[in-house]
Structures are given as C-alpha cells and as structure tokens.
Amino acid sequence: MYFSKYNMILPFSEEKNSYIILNLLSGSSDIASEDEINKLYDIKSGGDIDDIDFLDYVIDRGYVYEDKEYEDLTKGLKEVSHPL
Fold it and tell me: Are 38 and 58 in contact (CB under 8 A)?
C-alpha cells in the first residue's frame, strides 16, 4: 500500500486526541482518532493492516493507494479533466 504524498495530518482537538486529515489531490478531509492516525502511519512505514473496513475507507477517500503509480495516474487524470 502507498500512503499518499498529498496527505496532511494536523492536530484537531488535544482534548479528544483527534486529528484532521486532508488529501489535497482527492479533496477529502476527515476527523480521525489517534488510533486511526496510527494505522495510517503503519501503512506509511510498510506495515500490514488487518482492519479491512478501515483500509477500504482510506482507499476510497484517497489517503492510500495500491501503489505510487496509481496515485500518479489519478493526478494525471485530474490535470487532464481540470486544466488551469
């Protein structure tokens, strides 16, 4: 799995240990728990995730891709369909 280089993870609420994750390519944004962020960092470091529902969700939202080439393809398609 490939952790998108367009992801931004920022603290959202210290009180609730939550974060906001943004993906500038897909336009997705979500509030995530510390546990969910840790799962994303596990993916980024090459670890395996057993939580299939979580994995499906982050793939659908564009935070994770099958590989870098798929992200590059997605970027290319967006550039073609939305030129400056």
Answer: no
Residue 77 pLDDT: 66
Q: Tokens in use for 5? A: 């280089």
Determine which helix (DSSP H) or strand (DSSP E) holds 44, and give its type and residue range: helix 34-44
Q: d(Cα 79, Cα 22) in Å, to the nearest integer?
A: 19
The pTM assigned to this predicted structure is 0.83
**CA trace torsion 58, 62, 65, 71 (10° rounding):** -170
In angstroms, the CA 49 to CA 27 distance is: 24
Alpha-carbon 76 to chain mean position = 18
